[in-house]
Design goal:
Blueprint: E1 5-6, E2 17-18, H1 19-22, H2 27-42, H3 44-50, E3 57-61, H4 68-74, E4 84-88, H5 99-114, E5 117-122, H6 124-127, H7 137-154, E6 162-168, E7 186-189, H8 195-205, H9 217-222, H10 229-247, H11 256-265, H12 272-284, E8 293-294, E9 302-303, H13 316-333
Parallel strand pairs: 3-6, 3-7, 4-5, 5-6
Antiparallel strand pairs: 1-2, 8-9
Helix pairs in contact: 2-13, 4-13, 5-7, 8-10, 10-11
């Protein structure tokens, strides 16, 4: 797989990091997201000639438990890079009337000034909660936020280089109006990591650990079905810090028995019933079958004219991280844009 890289700082002595080195992931997901994020920016002229209309919104949904660390680490704006705006849904709620809506409008205004840019909403189900509940203070604020978000997203019709990316653990709680064409045109279901992805994640989080020759990460991956990326990271940390050092304070390597001890004491927070509920949400969407085609070689990967179905089993944290890396890569290396871009 072609590496997608981004410089962490302006220090030329810092080497570049790949998505695989930073968090572990899936080639199919990387390829699909690279197309979704970079093509509209790199090939804007070509797309205009062909009369193509790129999606303005991408909604990621799936189980909780991964991604916040990577987002915070790689999101810090630096000079000469377009801004990637991040909003937590909870941050938009305020005791002062109208303050959340004002912050939301200001976010879109800054994105327009800094274009090409990405607006990222974590906890999208909070800022875009379903309307129509019993009247209360929080519900009234929520309805005003949804109305403001709808207005701002509709205002992107003539905008260039702005993408709204949102992630949620509760897709059923999002207002249906945001699922209509012109808003979140693409919906991506992100299942928990499969066997291959779990093995990659374990490799990432043990890269700096000194492992004994008897450590079998493939077996550990097989024994951790339904584990999220965060839980796999915690397993590796506990095996090294808690078990190995508790057994022998002078321990120099982590052995397979340490991993097994931790694994036997853990239970994944995610259940099979919850996974089935996430899967059923995509099936219940009004998929438009016209123009459907399968992406390269993956039977589970289907692009739809309006909706994007399951791409591949990989955590939401990995997906979000890859989106940010792709965007920063384009903002840093593309000749299509000026170097002086607004930053926060």
């Amino acid at each position: 797989m072609e590496a997608i890289t981004t410089n962490r700082t302006n220090n030329s002595n810092d080497r570049e990091w790949t998505a695989e080195e930073a968090i572990g992931g899936n080639a199919e997901a990387l390829r699909a997201l690279r197309e979704l994020i970079t093509f509209p920016l790199l090939y804007s002229r070509e797309s205009r000639k062909l009369g193509l209309k790129w999606p303005r919104g991408l909604l990621l949904y799936g189980p909780p438990g991964t991604g916040k660390y990577s987002l915070n680490t790689f999101m810090k704006p630096t000079p000469h890079r377009a801004v990637i705006f991040v909003n937590s849904g909870a941050e938009l709620y305020s005791m002062y009337v109208g303050e959340g809506e004002s912050l939301l409008r200001n976010t879109f205004r800054r994105a327009h000034l800094a274009a090409p840019s990405i607006i990222f909403f974590d906890e999208a189900d909070v800022v875009a909660a379903k309307r129509g509940g019993k009247s209360s203070g929080n519900i009234a604020v929520g309805e005003r936020l949804v109305s403001t978000l709808l207005t701002e997203m509709d205002g992107l019709e003539q905008a260039k280089g702005i993408l709204v990316l949102a992630a949620t653990n509760r897709p059923h709680a999002i207002d249906a109006a945001l699922m209509r064409p012109g808003r979140f045109d693409l919906v991506l279901y992100v299942p928990p990591p499969d066997l291959e992805a779990r093995y990659e994640i374990l490799n990432v989080h043990t890269r700096k650990m000194k492992l004994d020759n008897d450590v079998d990460l493939k077996q550990t991956a097989e024994d951790t079905e339904l584990f999220t990326g965060a839980e796999l990271e915690g397993l590796c940390r506990e095996a090294g810090i808690v078990v190995a050092l508790r057994e022998d304070i002078s321990a120099t390597v982590v052995c397979n028995r340490h991993f097994q001890t931790v694994r036997n004491s853990l239970k994944p927070a995610l259940t099979r019933e919850e996974v089935n509920a996430y899967s059923s949400f995509m099936k219940n969407l009004s998929l438009v079958s016209s123009g459907e085609f399968k992406s390269s070689g993956n039977e589970n990967s289907k692009y739809h004219k309006r909706w994007l179905g399951s791409v591949s089993p990989v955590s939401i944290g990995i997906i979000s991280f890859v989106v940010l890396v792709c965007a920063k890569y384009i903002f840093t290396h593309s000749n299509h844009f000026p170097n002086e871009l607004a930053t926060t």
